[in-house]
Amino acid sequence: MVLKSFTILKVVFKIKFNTFLSVISSKVILKLSKFLFKGGSNFPGKVALKLDKNILETVAKDYNVILITGTNGKTTTTSMIYNMIKDSGNEVITNGTGANMLPGITACFIENYRFKSYKNNKYAVIEVDEANLTFITDYISPKIITITNLFRDQLDRYGEVYTTLKKILDGVYKTPNSTLVLNGDESLLGDLDLKNPIVYYGFNCSVDENKKIDINADAKFCKKCKAPYSYNYLTYNHLGSFYCESCGYSRPNLDYSVDKLVELTPSGSLVWINDHEYYINQPGIYNIYNGLCALSIAKTLGIEHSVIFNSLKSQSSSFGRQEILDIDGKEVKIILVKNPAGFDQAITTITLDERQVNLAFILNDNYADGRDVSWIWDVNFESLNVLNIDKIMVSGIRLYDMAIRLKTSGLPEDKFRLCENNEDLLNEISSCDSSVVYVLATYTAMINFRKYLHSKGHIKKLW
């Protein structure tokens, strides 16, 4: 006990007292939050930053940091990278709960901080909110920064995609030695005026025969001359092999590419990447992008092919991202949806299912969802009419907005069930005649529904 106290005193003298107090206070609050509230990592981080605004620089200094930002796919990609590094035998931490703003990230590092020297080659795989990247790079010089894509999302926070890009680049400019791993199919990420080494990934094959961009797609016009883009092929929304006939700007050369789509199923995808076959244990084109991004980072870190192969094959769902639950004998899959591009991809994946299915939609308009829900009118709900649908459940703060949108898409009104709260929704799910239920929910709706399911014993691990 005396030796332990002496060790702590030595630490206090090595670091500033307010830093020491910041770490201790945050650790105590973290433990209390987990015990009392089954989670909560933002408030402890806020307390730590209040006591020492530079605390992140101290607690993150011994890590090789990998930052993942962008509109869609951050949480899943973060999980994939984390698993690959862990499976390679390296020590690694992550903010797996999705607390991706400065306080949550600070709390993640503090939770894993120890008052002693660290061994070399420790990694931190950190998901970062697009607008918060610039706050993180004030204190951290990451080894790698990846940007997954840029879509319209939470317009009241970010504005259009060009504003989102500027927010991200404000953070990147501060760390010119970080390697950037970028989606080459994202036209906004080509030909950047940056000093950083850049690795690009993307598709070198078409998903279908479509070469015409949808009227509701994002970033349709050349970033150089504002002429409309042309495409050799599109993957989804505005992503694909783009080029400008007016000024010649085109997609950069890819370092890592999907060269062939062998099979797409509701469970996962079999693909060829750089002359090797991989099974990605998450469905949909958007999850192929996530897997390709994770692979590109793993290759950049020198992780062996066999580790990457096995990790992608066994990748489990992150909470609320294609998460599958058993509720009273029903196969319930929860899918986070938050913008037109992601929602369309979720719908496309669901339409691969030839079974009779039930659909549940939960739409909220809290701050974390975006107050403006007009974006649902840009989602292609009409394509759901190909499904064999048993029941359509609608819930959330804005359930009537969602119900009207679904009605105008041509879905049968007699199958609608309006659920005023989570209890009503769970009862409707339990009483479904067929066993397959897809729950498509915005962020706070997903969080709240999972908490309710946890309280009823349907989810064991909340975070």
From TrEMBL:
Active-site residue list: D372
Assigned protein family: Belongs to the MurCDEF family. MurT subfamily.
All residue ranges annotated as the Mur ligase central domain in the record: 68-219
PANTHER family associated with the record: LIPID II ISOGLUTAMINYL SYNTHASE (GLUTAMINE-HYDROLYZING) SUBUNIT MURT (PTHR23135:SF7), MUR LIGASE FAMILY MEMBER (PTHR23135)
Originating organism: Clostridium omnivorum
Pathway: Cell wall biogenesis; peptidoglycan biosynthesis
Annotated Lipid II isoglutaminyl synthase (glutamine-hydrolyzing) subunit MurT C-terminal domain residues: 336-446
Name used for this protein in its record: Lipid II isoglutaminyl synthase (glutamine-hydrolyzing) subunit MurT
Functional description taken from the UniProt entry: The lipid II isoglutaminyl synthase complex catalyzes the formation of alpha-D-isoglutamine in the cell wall lipid II stem peptide. The MurT subunit catalyzes the ATP-dependent amidation of D-glutamate residue of lipid II, converting it to an isoglutamine residue.
Reaction catalysis annotation: beta-D-GlcNAc-(1->4)-Mur2Ac(oyl-L-Ala-gamma-D-O-P-Glu-L-Lys-D-Ala-D-Ala)-di-trans,octa-cis-undecaprenyl diphosphate + NH4(+) = beta-D-GlcNAc-(1->4)-Mur2Ac(oyl-L-Ala-D-isoglutaminyl-L-Lys-D-Ala-D-Ala)-di-trans,octa-cis-undecaprenyl diphosphate + phosphate + H(+); beta-D-GlcNAc-(1->4)-Mur2Ac(oyl-L-Ala-gamma-D-Glu-L-Lys-D-Ala-D-Ala)-di-trans,octa-cis-undecaprenyl diphosphate + ATP = beta-D-GlcNAc-(1->4)-Mur2Ac(oyl-L-Ala-gamma-D-O-P-Glu-L-Lys-D-Ala-D-Ala)-di-trans,octa-cis-undecaprenyl diphosphate + ADP; beta-D-GlcNAc-(1->4)-Mur2Ac(oyl-L-Ala-gamma-D-Glu-L-Lys-D-Ala-D-Ala)-di-trans,octa-cis-undecaprenyl diphosphate + L-glutamine + ATP + H2O = beta-D-GlcNAc-(1->4)-Mur2Ac(oyl-L-Ala-D-isoglutaminyl-L-Lys-D-Ala-D-Ala)-di-trans,octa-cis-undecaprenyl diphosphate + L-glutamate + ADP + phosphate + H(+)
The protein's Enzyme Commission number: 6.3.5.13
Quaternary structure annotation from Swiss-Prot or TrEMBL: Forms a heterodimer with GatD.
Keyword annotations from UniProtKB, A to Z: ATP-binding, Cell shape, Cell wall biogenesis/degradation, Ligase, Metal-binding, Nucleotide-binding, Peptidoglycan synthesis, Zinc
Binding site for Zn(2+): C222, C225, C244, C247
InterPro entries registered for this protein in UniProt: Folylpolyglutamate_synth_CS, Lipid_II_synth_MurT, Mur-like_cat_sf, Mur_ligase_cen, MurT_C
UniProt enzyme class: ligase
Protein origin, superkingdom: Bacteria
